[in-house]
Amino acid sequence: LGGGLAMTARTHRTGTDRIAEVARGLEAEVVVNVQGDLPLLDPAMVGAVVAPLLDDPGLPMATVSTPLRDREEYENPNVVKVVTDRDGYALLFSRSPLPYHRDGAPAGPLGHKHIGLYGYRREFLLDFAALAPTALEQAEQLEQLRALEWGFRIKVAPVAAASIEVDTPRDLERA
């Protein structure tokens, strides 16, 4: 395991570009991107995002999600939602409420909140950062949609604990 601080070029458009710059100088097989908007991150989540990459050498990318029970969060565009297939691979990420409950809210979770923590296979990360942004990525301003649109799988590991992501002044107050 490594760690440390690295200053990146100011010209990067995205966080993926910044982490790829750092990854170029690493020898690690797996790179974890802990974003600055997760100041209260439970360290166990890092293990949850790394585990699928260690279990499956062909998996390019992983992330985490937690059940979403709060209606306000469900409808908040700053809270990214994720829908997965039966095996836990991402089908779609969106700032819109996902899934849409046509017949009213279910008794259980409304959906799943994506937590902005990513694990990448290093070689994939370098290739991924070089891919052209996609229309869906640009519409939602969510880089992980680029991976899906280019046909790459993202494993979404479930975690029980939620983490406050600080994207707005209100989030900062909650934190």
Strand content: 15-25%
Strand order of the largest sheet: 1-5-2-6
Largest sheet: 4 strands, mixed
- CA-based gyration radius: 16 Å
Structural class: alpha+beta
Helix content: 25-40%
Alpha carbon gap, first and last residue = 28 Å
Number of strands: 6
**Secondary-structure element series:** HEHEHEEEHHHEH
User: What low-confidence regions span 5 or more consecutive residues with pLDDT below 50?
Assistant: none
> Helix count?
7
Mean pLDDT: 88
Overall outline? globular
Structural description of this entry:
By secondary structure, the chain is an alpha+beta fold. Helix content is 31%, strand content 22%. The chain has 7 helices and 6 strands, in the order αβαβαβββαααβα. The chain has helices at 15-24, 44-55, 71-75, 122-130, 135-140, 144-149, 169-174; strands at 30-34, 61-68, 81-84, 90-94, 111-121, 154-158. The strands form 2 sheets. It has a 4-stranded mixed β-sheet. Strand 3 and strand 4 form a beta hairpin. The radius of gyration is 16 Å and the shape is globular. The mean pLDDT is 88.
